Amino acid sequence: MQNVLEISNLSIGYSGRNGGDTVIARDLNFTLAQGEFVSIVGANGIGKSTLLRTLAGVQRQLSGQVLINGKSIYSLTPQKLASSLSIVLTEPLPTRNLTVRELISLGRQPYTNWLGTLTENDKEAVESSIRNTGLEALEHRKCYELSDGQLQKVLIARALAQDTPIMMLDEPTTHLDLYHKVQVLKTMKGIAREFGKTVIYTTHEIDLAIQLCDQMLILERSGHHFGPPCSHIENQSFQNLFPSDLIDFDSGTGTFKIKN
Ligand SMILES: Nc1ncnc2c1ncn2[C@@H]1O[C@H](COP(=O)(O)OP(=O)(O)OP(=O)(O)O)[C@@H](O)[C@H]1O
């Protein structure tokens, strides 16, 4: 499989007003191949969203490299970047006054003319992302009429309509019930498989990620681990993810258990 995203010696964080940097994670090294379904996991505040935003070029890295197909992400024009990767963030929408279909159609912006006219190809991409996310019944509803979970699906559909080789999603299943979490994750994995897209998302649902992902990036204060879920289980990498006073990772079932 061809490597699409190469991260080398990456340090992420925030530049202070007086010039000092706050480093959130350093020396990150991993590579994502075409068609892989990948999650980023770790405790609250460890840097999952910061990393995702850095990988997407939404915020600058402190040092190191993020390469998409061998080219630095920061050298790409906004147009090229928008046709290379889509990102679903947790920030609220600027407007919820659009219908579901209109919002999903915005995903086609990198390809439309300045009037935003949709071609047959654009319309087909919108149709198929509505179908793939099961939003047919909601397509004419206004976004302000949706529940948080329904809106989350619409944002995923917009990213799907963008039809980029790389998709990045920040906690895409937070507001969904268990059934719909699995439905959305399986849809995303299916898209990775069927269309050879690389999908990377942050999550707190480690059990589901273990069952579904090809690769997992585990962020910890002491460093990071990257590899397939089974190698993390073998290497006991989940054991140190959280303080051990309340929960333990059970390698046999691949789940966290509450301590008695
Ligand atoms: N704009 C910012 N400026 C400075 N520090 C920030 C900024 N945004 C986040 N941080 C800090 O960076 C660290 C990592 O935050 P981040 O949101 O990436 O973590 P996370 O792993 O996604 O957390 P969670 O699981 O709670 O969503 C936190 O300590 C946070 O306070």
Architecture overview:
GO terms for molecular function: ATP binding. Keywords: ATP-binding, Nucleotide-binding, Transport. Residues 5-246 form the ABC transporter domain. This is ABC transporter ATP-binding protein. With 260 residues, this protein is α/β, with parallel strands linked by helices. It has one domain (3-91, 164-258): 3-Layer(aba) Sandwich (Rossmann fold). It contains eight helices and twelve strands. The chain has helices at residues 48-55, 78-84, 100-105, 120-132, 148-162, 178-195, 206-212, 229-234; strands at residues 3-15, 21-33, 37-41, 63-68, 71-72, 85-88, 166-170, 198-202, 215-220, 223-227, 247-250, 255-258. A hairpin with a 2-residue loop joins strand 4 (63-68) and strand 5. Helix 4 (120-132) packs antiparallel against helix 5. The longest helix is centred in the C-terminal third of the chain and has 18 residues, at 178-195. It starts with a strand and ends with a strand. Bound molecules: adenosine-5'-triphosphate. The site of adenosine-5'-triphosphate has 11 residues, from strand 2 and helix 1.
SSE diagram, text form:
Blueprint lengths: L2 E13 L5 E13 L3 E5 L6 H8 L7 E6 L2 E2 L5 H7 E4 L11 H6 L14 H13 L15 H15 L3 E5 L7 H18 L2 E5 L3 H7 L2 E6 L2 E5 L1 H6 L12 E4 L4 E4 L2
Parallel strand pairs: 3-8, 3-9, 6-7, 7-8
Antiparallel strand pairs: 1-2, 1-4, 4-5, 9-10, 11-12
Helix pairs in contact: 4-5
What is the CATH superfamily label? Answer: P-loop containing nucleotide triphosphate hydrolases
Give the low-pLDDT segments. none
Distance, first to last CA: 45 Å
| Strand fraction | 25-35%
The main sheet comes to: 6 strands, mixed
Rg over CA atoms, rounded to whole Å, is 19 Å
Q: Would you give the CATH topology?
A: Rossmann fold
